[in-house]
Amino acid sequence: MSIFHTMLNVFGGLAIFIFGMKMMSDGLHHVAGEKMRSILRVFSANSFMAVLSGATVTCVIQSSSASTVMVIGFINAGLLTLAQAVGLIFGANIGTTITAQLVAFKISWIIMPAIILGLLCSFIPRRRIANWSETILGFGFLFLGMELMSDTLKELSKYEAFEKAFQLFECAPGNGSYLMPFWALLGAVAVGMIATFIIQSSSACTGIIIALGASGLIDIYTAVALVLGSNIGTTITAQLAALTANRVAKQAALAHTLFNVLGVMIIMLSFLIPCSGDPLFFAIIKKLGTGLPRQIANAHTIFNVVTTLILLPFVSVFAKVCEKIIPVKDEKIKFQKLEPHLLDAPPIALAQTTSSLRQMLKKAWKMIDCAIDIYSNNNEKNQSIVKQLEKRETDIDQRQKDITEYLSLLMSKDLTRKEAEQIPLLLHCTNDVERIGDHAEIIRSITEKLNAENLRFSEDADKEFDLLHRTLANLADCSIDLLAKNDSESVNKAKTVQERIFAMLDRSEAEHLSRINNGDCRPQVGILYLELLEEFRKLARHLENINDRAGMIYVKLPNAAKNN
To answer: What's the whole-model pTM score?
Structure first.
């Protein structure tokens, strides 16, 4: 076989390996589904639980980079504090070692059965089985890629040029000393770091290192140095994700980098301690397992577990150091509820969308409230708000656009049926809220006309108008509450207020027509009053639409820092 074909097989094996890892990760993520949201609830408990949560979530999605990016999204959306995020990042580094442990097993016999079983399961229409088929297929492809890489790299090891290339960074101690060559060690760490920068996955990089070890191209010393470098390299993904995020998210990305760099320094210090003629770390590795692939996988796990145990008591200190290095300049941190990185966690993204919708409704109702109130309280405060109605309406329109675009992006994700059903509900609610904002300008024009021409309602109409305003405000409060807590008590309360407002509107309209006919109310004023009643009716219908759908959408956020 020519060297060209050998290299082609190596990269082909790598491609299958990475594809299998992604497929298995996606399958597990879909199988976990709603459970991911439940796991997030333990974040705020304590540092130990945060580490456990981070490790569990990363075991599911098979990538510390992906879970750390998710953490950046949580912080940027105001769902996590920095201290909670640091614990989660510590746990993510432990969780990612599961891939290396898997590929270190020599179980080539399982490859074809896994691929066949996964393919057969994919023909079964039930979604849960389809998700498991993705996981099983990915598992088969993961080991198939590993097998191809290992076998082909053994061919490469026969070429003298390749052997010499790998010897450039050989880190094995020489001349009867237990000390590893310093510059070779740094060089190997740099190679591992750069390779992971490019691949964007420490799990994939560790898989390649295991394959290199299995082929005999590198020894345990060089392999560990490459693993250490890959753990630094994997932090680039979080740094990139934090570029457009708030400063607290940038602090979390820095914490990820500092943790891994400090971890590498701690392990490298252990290289200076002799034990049975070897550096301490390697003496432990060799006692825990035989066979180079298993030793490399154990080294990856021990590195992350040991550094986490050492640094875990200093989580708060770690957070404070990051806050000192990247201080928050403004007193108020801006949170982005519609965080792009949360799209990979649909339940969280949907809950955040509901929260954004709730904020949008609050602002729309404030416009309506002021436009109505200007009739009886034409004071300076209300006038200042009225003058901003056009600007506020533009803000409402922009919020509608943002939510619509966010949900459009979410639709491109692989959603469960329940998650997919949320999107049209949220879109309809968003349109209703936008229409509520539009009515503010119509109501303002009517109330300002009344004030400008010094037109007043009759005494009875005034009382009705005030009562209708208060009842409509009560209904708006119910809608806002339902978007935060849609329990049966809140739903029943909203229905009661809805029935009351429509009954009041019917009665007020009939009584007012009677007043006009009896001459108790001037026709010019009476027409404006009826126009306001019609606007109230339209607003009540929009709020009723929101209430009817609110009971079917995600509203509860994880127990974490909330910015409402």
So the answer is: 0.76
